[in-house]
From TrEMBL:
One of its GO terms (molecular function) is sequence-specific DNA binding. InterPro entries: Trp_repress, Trp_repressor/repl_initiator, TrpR-like_sf. The lineage of its organism: Bacteria, Candidatus Zambryskiibacteriota. Gene3D superfamilies: TrpR-like. Pfam families: Trp_repressor. It comes from Candidatus Zambryskibacteria bacterium CG_4_9_14_3_um_filter_40_16. This is Uncharacterized protein.
Length: 133
C-alpha cells in the first residue's frame, strides 16, 4: 500500500508542482518517451494500481457488472462500485473517450487475458477448486 505523508503541502505549491508534472508528462507523451517517464517515477505497486484502475474504467465502459470486474481484477467490490458511481456521474468521460479511440486489437488481447483466469461458469471444471489441495 502506498504511503502518503501526513504533512500536507500548501495548495498553491501543490497546484504548481502538479501543473509542472502534467506538462512534463504531456511533453513526454508527444516525444514518445512516456513509458520511460513512468518507469522512472512509478513504483511497482503504483504501476499495478494505475493499470488496474485503467482496466476498471475500460471494463465499466463495456457495461460489465462491477461484481465480475472485482472478481477478475482481484479488487474489492467496494472499490469497483465506487468507481462505477464516479463513471455514472461523468468522472471518467475523458478516459472513456480516449479508450474508444484506441486500438481494438489491444483491447481484444486484454479481454482474452482477463478471461483466461476465470473458471468456467458451467461444466465439469466449475467446482474443481474445491478438490485441489
Amino acid at each position: 500500500m502506498p504511503h502518503i505523508s501526513s504533512k500536507k503541502l500548501h495548495k498553491d505549491y501543490l497546484q504548481k508542482i502538479y501543473g509542472h508534472f502534467m506538462s512534463k508528462l504531456e511533453g513526454a507523451s508527444k516525444k514518445g518517451t512516456a513509458v520511460s517517464f513512468f518507469e522512472d517515477f512509478l513504483t511497482p505497486t503504483e504501476k499495478i494500481m494505475f493499470a488496474k484502475r485503467f482496466a476498471v474504467v475500460y471494463l465499466l465502459s463495456k457495461n460489465l457488472p462491477p461484481s465480475y470486474i472485482a472478481e477478475v481484477l482481484l479488487m474489492s467490490p467496494a472499490t469497483i462500485y465506487r468507481m462505477s458511481l464516479n463513471k455514472n456521474i461523468g468522472k471518467y468521460s475523458h478516459a472513456i473517450r480516449s479508450l474508444k479511440l484506441s486500438d481494438e486489437m489491444t483491447w481484444d488481447l486484454f479481454e482474452k487475458i482477463i478471461r483466461m483466469g476465470l473458471p468456467p461458469k458451467v461444466g465439469r471444471g466449475r467446482w474443481k477448486f474445491l478438490y485441489t489441495k
